[in-house]
């Protein structure tokens, strides 16, 4: 009986340890270290990613290098360096209670975010460096469900008085792991669109409406993406097929 008790105790400890290890893996996720993007004409671009644990440090290819700065687990600065003309763009991120509230760009614009009680996020983009003093370019609302950005509604402000331009982008997802979601703090970057979502976008529908006086013109485009996954349900290949809506074919391979 004592031996059975010891065996049962040993098995229980092993199960707990294995479960703990599995949870640690799920929490941390896995990061891709190389991305190969191939266009329809066969031209391939290799991007190399560097990390410290699950913090992204840099991404680099033949055209550009992107450097990331963290503070307290949040990405506070992104510097995009263009190798062709040796120019750079600097993005500064500000947070309140670990939620993004402002993005400031060296390209002379700022985006302000307001986190609403219903889970949506309102945003306003200003051309210039001071809210209320610069010119508002557009404003809108972001909608989320199950850690995925499912809809972005936008109203453009810099138009004629008699003209109203609105856009709506909706996203459909698979149930597998978006590799960017494993990067610490990346899901806070609301300016990165669907890349911050937990799952991978399989279809995007972009709708635009222009009201000019008594005339209304509407248009819609649909984009589809297919994936191949590894045993951990992370994408190893992403293909965007050419179509009337999307003339540019591309294939992205992820190496972990």
Verbal overview:
Residues 1-24 form the signal peptide. This is DUF4595 domain-containing protein. There is one protein chain. The chain is 11% helix and 54% strand. The model is unreliable at 1-27 (pLDDT under 50). The protein has one helix at 2-28, and strands at 34-39, 44-52, 55-60, 64-71, 74-82, 87-96, 99-105, 109-115, 121-127, 135-145, 148-156, 163-173, 201-212, 215-229, 235-240, 250-255. It has a single domain, classed as Porin (Beta Barrel), CATH 2.40.160. It has a 16-stranded antiparallel β-barrel with strand order 1-2-3-4-5-6-7-8-9-10-11-12-13-14-15-16.
Topology:
Layout: H1 2-28, E1 34-39, E2 44-52, E3 55-60, E4 64-71, E5 74-82, E6 87-96, E7 99-105, E8 109-115, E9 121-127, E10 135-145, E11 148-156, E12 163-173, E13 201-212, E14 215-229, E15 235-240, E16 250-255
Antiparallel strand pairs: 1-2, 1-16, 2-3, 3-4, 4-5, 5-6, 6-7, 7-8, 8-9, 9-10, 10-11, 11-12, 12-13, 13-14, 14-15, 15-16
Q: Give the number of DSSP strands.
A: 16
Number of domains in the coordinates?
1
The CATH level-2 architecture is identified as Beta Barrel
Main sheet makeup: 16 strands, antiparallel, barrel
From the spread of the alpha carbons, the general shape counts as globular
CATH class: Mainly Beta
Query: What's the Cα radius of gyration?
Result: 22 Å
Report low-confidence residues grouped into runs of 5 or more: 1-27
Structural class: mainly beta
The rounded distance between the terminal residues' Cα atoms is: 48 Å
SSE topology string:
HEEEEEEEEEEEEEEEE
What is the CATH topology assignment? Porin
Portion in helices: 10-25%
Number of helices: 1
Integer average pLDDT: 88
The spatial strand order of the largest sheet comes to 1-2-3-4-5-6-7-8-9-10-11-12-13-14-15-16
Strand share of the residues? over 45%
Protein name: DUF4595 domain-containing protein
Organism: Flavobacterium glycines
Signal peptide: 1-24
Keywords: Signal
């Amino acid at each position: 009986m004592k031996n059975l008790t010891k065996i049962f105790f040993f098995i229980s400890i092993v199960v707990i340890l294995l479960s703990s290890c599995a949870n640690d893996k799920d929490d941390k996720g896995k990061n891709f270290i190389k991305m190969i993007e191939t266009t329809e004409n066969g031209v391939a671009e290799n991007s190399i990613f560097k990390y410290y644990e699950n913090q992204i440090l840099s991404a680099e290819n033949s055209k550009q290098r992107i450097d990331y700065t963290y503070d307290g687990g949040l990405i506070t600065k992104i510097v995009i360096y263009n190798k062709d003309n040796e120019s750079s763009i600097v993005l500064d991120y500000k947070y309140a209670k670990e939620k993004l509230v402002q993005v400031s760009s060296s390209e002379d614009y700022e985006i302000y975010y307001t986190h609403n009680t219903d889970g949506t996020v309102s945003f306003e983009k200003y051309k210039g460096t001071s809210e209320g003093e610069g010119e508002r370019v557009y404003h809108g609302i972001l909608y989320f469900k199950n850690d995925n950005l499912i809809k972005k509604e936008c109203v453009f402000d810099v138009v004629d008085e008699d003209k109203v331009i609105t856009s709506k982008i909706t996203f459909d997802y698979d149930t597998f792991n978006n590799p960017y979601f494993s990067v610490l703090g990346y899901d806070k970057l609301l300016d990165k669109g669907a890349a911050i979502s937990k799952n991978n976008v399989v279809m995007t529908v972009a709708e635009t409406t222009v009201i000019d006086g008594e005339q209304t013109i509407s248009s819609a485009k649909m984009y589809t993406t297919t994936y191949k996954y590894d045993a951990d349900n992370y994408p190893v290949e992403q293909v965007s097929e050419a179509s009337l809506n999307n003339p540019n074919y591309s294939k992205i391979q992820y190496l972990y």
